[in-house]
Amino acid sequence: MFENTDIDKLFKKFRKQKVLIIGDVMIDTYLWGRVDRISPEAPVPVLSNIHTEKRLGGAANVALNIKAMGAVPILCSVIGDDERGKEFIELMNCQNLTDIGIIIDSKRITTQKTRVISGNQHLLRLDEEQDDYINPEPEKRIIDIVENMLTEGKIDSIIFQDYDKGVITPKIIAEVVKVANKQKVPVLVDPKKRNFLAYEKVSLFKPNFKELNQGLKAEIDKHDLESIASAMENLRKSRNHKMVMVTLSELGIMINDKNSYHHLSAEIRDIADVSGAGDSVISLACLCLAAGLSPVEIAALSNLAGGQVCERAGVVPVDRLQLMEEFKAFILEKD
Q: pLDDT, tens digit, for every residue of 128-150?
């Protein structure tokens, strides 16, 4: 494990990385307010004193996590030629994110998730989206953009951030993984159900427990760690992945490679909102893998990152300085 000085060097190493994030982007809209009474018209709460906030969401939140760690994210996705699409570009500009990988498609809408929140209580979510696969023309443009970046040697690692909204197609998966493996660029995947088995020969495959069960059409008990480990190993072998990492929410995280598996318990925290935890986990896993960390070290730092963002309401990126201190404390405790 690390000494404190090594951790400082590790976090400095993150700053040298350039990460390509391919996936479904969206606007996360929040209606913050206060609930003081129940409506006389129906047994539902009445939200008052409302203020609205818009944030980058989906794969764009992964980009924010990568940026928060000091690395350089490049987001590759498709948005609609609509008002929300313009808002999305404005939000990217406000965060100093490049839009060179963003494709505007007049045949699609820009996804928006609207969360209604009172205090830290999540009351309701409204999803406005289009989830059919993108058309061949933007599909080809994504493949061309990624291939050009990879062949020019400008990318250290790739994340597929899949929300089942249609940007990631089986053809994009196959073409990008083929070129990335040829260029020896690590590929990490945060999957959803539709494309679960379309991924092959990736460096790290990271479903959560529900996605693991759905993707494998299994009914594993969450507390049966041996069965989870067995399913992970079968998945790793059958799809030729190098590593599989599964998040287990309150039970922590598991990771395997060809030699063994490791289970790390969750840290005790005051949970406000689990939204965005997976984004932070895959972001740190990506940076750690590219930095040459071992599987257990990847899982440890990713686990801390996912837990940290659960302490704050809404989808938020990881806090770099807080994560450094938490990781140092974690190492001292384990030593």
A: 999 999 999 999 999 999 999 99
Residue showing tokens 């020019």: 152
- Provide the phi-psi class of 198: left if phi over 0, else alpha when psi is between -120 and 50, else beta: alpha
Distance CA 266, CA 316 (A): 19
What does the block give as tokens for 43? 């047994």
Inform me whether the pLDDT recorded for 311 exceeds 90: no
Q: Which of 156, 257, 279, 319 is catalytic?
A: 279
Q: Is the pLDDT of residue 275 over 70?
A: no
Q: In the CATH scheme, what is the code of domain 4-334?
A: 3.40.1190.20
Chain segment 284-298, per-residue pLDDT in tens: 999 999 999 999 999
Find all residues with CB under 8 Å of 241, minimum gap 6, and list them: 199, 200, 201, 202, 203, 204, 205, 235
Judge residue 183's burial from the number of C-beta atoms within 10 Å of its C-beta, 0-12 exposed, 13-18 middle, 19 or more buried: middle
Q: Examine the residue annotation and report whether 144 is marked as an active-site residue of this protein.
A: no
Evaluated on CA atoms 134, 135, 137, 143, the torsion sign reads positive
Q: Between 329 and 22, where is the model more confident?
A: 22
Query: What's the first-to-final CA gap in the chain, in angstroms?
Result: 8
- pLDDT for the residue 273: 45
